[in-house]
Amino acid sequence: MEVTLDSVTVSDAAEQYLSTSKEKDIPSAQRELARFVQQCGKYTDGRDREVSSLQPIQVEEYSATSGNFGDEGAVRLAITKRFLTFLNKDGLTNAKLASFAKARRNGRKRAGGKPRSGLLSAPKQFTAEGHSKLLAELEQLKAKRGNLAEAIREASSTGDVSENSPLDAVKEEQGQVESRIRDLEINLKDAIIMSDSVKSGKKAVSARLGSRVVLLQLDTAKKAEYLLVEPSEADPSAGKLSVASPVGQAVLNHVPGDKVNVTTPSGSVPYEVTKVK
Description:
By secondary structure, this protein is an alpha/beta fold. The chain folds into three domains: 1-112, DNA polymerase, domain 1 (Orthogonal Bundle); 128-193, Helix Hairpins (Orthogonal Bundle), CATH 1.10.287.180; 196-276, Roll (Chitinase A, domain 3). It has helices at 10-20, 27-40, 56-64, 70-89, 128-156, 165-188, 196-200, 246-251, and strands at residues 125-126, 192-193, 212-217, 222-229, 240-242, 259-264, 267-276. The strands form two sheets. A five-stranded mixed β-sheet has the order 5-4-3-7-6. Strands 1-2 form a two-stranded parallel sheet. A hairpin with a 2-residue loop joins β6 (259-264) and β7. α1 packs antiparallel against α2 (27-40), α2 packs across α4 and α5 (128-156) runs antiparallel to α6 (165-188). The longest helix is centred in the middle third of the chain and has 29 residues, at 128-156. The chain starts with 9 loop residues before the first helix and ends with a strand.
């Protein structure tokens, strides 16, 4: 199977990083990257997520809980930052995700209770299918709250909480669940569901969010059709391409007949936009 920049998964990237870095034999690095892959490297249906669909907000929310673990949290955060820096330097993503890996301090918010990041300030646009999936995920996560609270009570009753690994693990899971719930609630608040008229692009021939584009890879003469979507809805294997991915960024605002080049770890790949609908 042909491997392109948009098909490299977070799991594959983590393995590549560990195989080439000085941290390959360090257990704490292996554990942290396994944790990152589990929390950020999977779609809700369990499939591996592509590096190109990773969002800054996912990194923010994952890293935010590190502040709850003192010195251990600082070590974990440093490992995460080095891995994210590797993703950018090795050409696996154009996004500088390491800058979003920051521990949250005392739950501090900006004045007026607005999100710390401006990334979530604008309403998100989703397909009807993508919107339904996010709503279902939100309900599933909220349903886990009771089980997690009970697990914390059980773990707390087993002895010395200062050296209680099961308690630490379930508290960490609870933090990740609450962070994801906040993320989903912010994205779904005022969300815009793209209508058929928007997706059809009848009034605009240039590629934009919601457009369906047909791309011809000039080196191989292979064609592929994608729907350009928000990063949170991206799923290249299902034909949904993030507008923040290298290919998505390259084709935005282009019209049929335009040629674009996409930088990959193995070099530049030329495409032609053959259709926008």
